[in-house]
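Re: beginner question about structure tokens

> Can someone show what the tokenized structure looks like for a real chain? I only ever see the sequence side.

Sure, here's an example I had lying around. Input first:
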Amino acid sequence: MQTAVEPNSEAKQAYIRARQYFRSGNLSAAQSAADEVIRHSPGFASGRRLYADILIGCNQFAAARDQLDSALKLFPDQVDRRRPILLHKATCFIREGDLAGALGVATSADLKPVEALDAAMLSQLGYLLTLCESHEAALRVFEHTLTLQPDDPLFLFNCAAANRAMGNLERAEQLYDRVLALNPQDWEAYKNRSDLRKQNARRNHILELQQQLAQRDLPEVAKVQLQFALAKEYEDQDRYTDSFAALQQGCEVRRKSMDYQIDGDLSVMSDIAAHFTSEFLAGCDIPSDFGKEIIFVLGMPRTGSTLLDRILCASGDVVSAGEPDTFARLLVREAAKVQGTEGGSNRNIILQAGEALDVTAVGKAYLQQLYARAQLAGGKRIVDKNPMNFLYLGWIARALPGAKIVHLCRNPMDTCYAVYKTLFKTAYPFSYSQSEMAQYYGAYHRLMQHWRAVFADRVIDVDYESLVMDLLNTGQELYRRCELPWDDAVATGYYKSNKGTATASAAQVHQPVYQTSLNKWRNYAEQLQPMQDILMREGIEFA
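And the corresponding structure tokens:
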């Protein structure tokens, strides 16, 4: 058995070269140098870890894990040396998009109990668990981290976010207050804190936000976070004119910082519709029940997907995968094989692959990953509620003929306004302009009409308004279409689940159904006229 050794001089020199090449982005040269490191000193653990990072950069994830597994074998009985390598391996799974693999490593015996880990490893583990949608476990990790370093602003922020995800909103607010007391320039903490509850005239942060905005030479990121926070707190107090003024300023600053052209998205959606006809699904030899374990919930963001996810999971047999990009990643990876490239996130590569793309392989890989996550969570079926899967419905319908496809519909203006007023980390770049928001919605609307025409029997439409106004009947019909056993307790107990969420709905999802978000856009009818005009030109009706 190979044991850990200090590298010889040749390995040291090759290691230095490999690291320099890696840092400069020359992955081919880095890989050659790393190979030389291992050839000279196969027992050099740091050399194998560097090699793994290089391979991850080349999208060679399995090979990267082989290097990390070899590093683990160097320390069969030294758990302290194994732990950072295991966290490295979990990160490799994350980079590949395999959250089940990452969670399996992150919950392995060598990383328990959390009391045995130092603060740095705890912080990394908590972050990995959060990415895996394992929010309850992440909360335990972050809370323990604070017992070691109670005044670290980063640890406080992470713990606040974990409490927010689990619905512990008072605790989260206390932690955000501590973050800001220690670091008044943590701009995201202001916005997150404002989102935790409905602000009122007696208890709010409006003056504090105004004072921060009055500072000279504020960075753009600060202006965006503070304006969005201010807009939310004004809206909570029915100060609609002030709210929209702050929101618009925040959106304008955010939009100027983005390199985005909506024509690209509109063109892709048009191309997708042209690519898929009913013939695409004909002659498919995949068994009709393949993928029956999966329930897709999709549509535009901010239409109630987290609520619907909770309702489905209340059955007891269904668990949530959150909003993974697993299907899209696997499509891109398979298309890259066809194209002979390393891939990327460009959806055009999927269309360019055409009929040569092995959809069956994509479906099998997707089902393997999602079913593994369901088993880890103790469920028989699993919900993938990534809204953007509406783009990939043609491939989904062909690859997973047994999967249920639930499309959430909401009043178009309520949808567009809800997206417009939400500050996303990186997704949905069209959401910071009224014109682009409405144009994108129009293209989405046309694509969904196309999907219904191609395979109407596969799409289960659920109206958000019906869901919140008549949960009992709407929920029963949803369960029937998804072939789930209904229990009336679902209608009253879904929101009491201790499952967390890191979505924009985290502060609301632990509450019973409320109807206050219906027709909220009407409070801004005058200001949202540009959005209305475009939707009307698109022939989209709204009340």
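Each token stands for a local structural state, so reading them left to right follows the chain. DSSP finds 27 helices and five strands in the chain.
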